[in-house]
């Protein structure tokens, strides 16, 4: 697929890679970037040749966040809002596993993108933060809280301070800090490992993760255990040979 602000490629191992490709703008998430990511995810959602998605950034930065020039343009207010809403929900609700291969700084909306992914790994030089609060923009709190807990999320959102790779690993924001090698290569190894499972099973598991966020144990257990177990029993029953008369 040809895009102007992202690179989208599918590797032979069924890994889809989306590279934020505005290195001269520190991969700022402009309206066009958000629309192209949304379009790419829509196309890959129904493509069985794509089983896992990896997000990464071109150059030394993952993403510096939203394009501030667009925020200052009154004529773009509605489009900034609508593209942002659609894009965030498209990433969060994407039907297949997603990995953030964080190759550098991830700030503001770039930080948000990482928290919307299922798995996060980063380079030793990566950093995270919500500096936008200093400019009057409230950070996206809830996805971050789900990952690192309320205390750390409140700290990061209120202070706007920068979290380095070591703290990100210690708090559980990232599952691995990749040292001495390409973070994207490591993300592809994780993707290959994930793809050892059948795609329908991965999609079902992802659906649990998205739909059951915030639900209590009983409601989640019924959806994640009872319903699939009953379906499995019915499938086995249908495959059993008919008994003798």
Under CATH at level 1, the class of the largest domain stands as Alpha Beta
> How many domain modules?
2
The residue-averaged pLDDT reads 93
What is the CATH topology assignment of the largest domain?
Answer: 2-enoyl-CoA Hydratase, Chain A, domain 1
Largest sheet: 6 strands, mixed
Poorly predicted regions are: none
Distance between the termini: 59 Å
Q: What is the H-and-E element order?
A: EEHEEHHEEHEEHHEHEHHH
Rg of Cα set: 20 Å
Q: Determine the oligomeric state from the structure.
A: single chain
Which descriptor suits the 3D outline?
A: globular
Strand content: 15-25%
The helix/strand class is: alpha/beta
| Biggest β-sheet: strands ordered side by side in the sheet | 1-2-3-5-7-10
Description:
The protein has two domains: 6-194, Alpha-Beta Complex (2-enoyl-CoA Hydratase, Chain A, domain 1), CATH 3.90.226; 199-239, no CATH class. The protein has ten helices and ten strands. A hairpin with a 4-residue loop joins strand 1 (6-10) and strand 2 (15-20). The chain is an alpha/beta fold. The strands form two sheets. The chain has a six-stranded mixed beta sheet with strand order 1-2-3-5-7-10, with helices on both faces. Helix 1 packs parallel to helix 3 (77-92) and helix 5 (142-148) packs across helix 6 (150-159). The radius of gyration is 20 Å and the shape is globular. 47% of the residues lie in helices and 17% in strands. The termini are far apart.
């Amino acid at each position: 697929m040809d895009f102007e602000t992202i690179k989208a490629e599918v590797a032979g191992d069924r890994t889809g890679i989306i590279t934020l490709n505005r290195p001269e703008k520190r991969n700022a998430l402009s309206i066009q970037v958000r629309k192209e990511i949304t379009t790419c995810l829509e196309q890959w959602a129904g493509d069985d040749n794509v089983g896992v998605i990896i997000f990464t950034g071109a150059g030394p930065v993952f993403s510096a966040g939203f394009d501030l020039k667009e925020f200052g343009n009154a004529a773009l207010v509605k489009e900034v809002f609508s593209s942002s809403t659609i894009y965030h929900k498209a990433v969060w609700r994407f039907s297949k596993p997603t990995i953030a291969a964080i190759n550098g700084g991830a700030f503001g909306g770039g930080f948000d993108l990482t928290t919307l992914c299922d798995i996060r790994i980063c380079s030793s030089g990566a950093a995270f933060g919500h500096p936008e609060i200093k400019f009057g923009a409230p950070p996206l709190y809830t996805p971050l809280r789900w990952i690192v807990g309320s205390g750390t999320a409140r700290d990061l959102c209120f202070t706007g301070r920068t979290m380095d790779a070591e703290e990100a690993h210690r708090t559980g924001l990232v599952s691995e800090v990749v040292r001495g090698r390409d973070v994207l290569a490591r993300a592809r190894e994780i993707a290959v490992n994930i793809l050892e499972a059948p795609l329908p099973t991965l999609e079902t598991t992802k659906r649990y993760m998205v739909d059951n966020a915030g639900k209590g144990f009983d409601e989640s257990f019924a959806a994640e255990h009872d319903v699939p177990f009953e379906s499995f029993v019915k499938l086995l029953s249908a495959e059993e040979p008919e008994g003798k008369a």
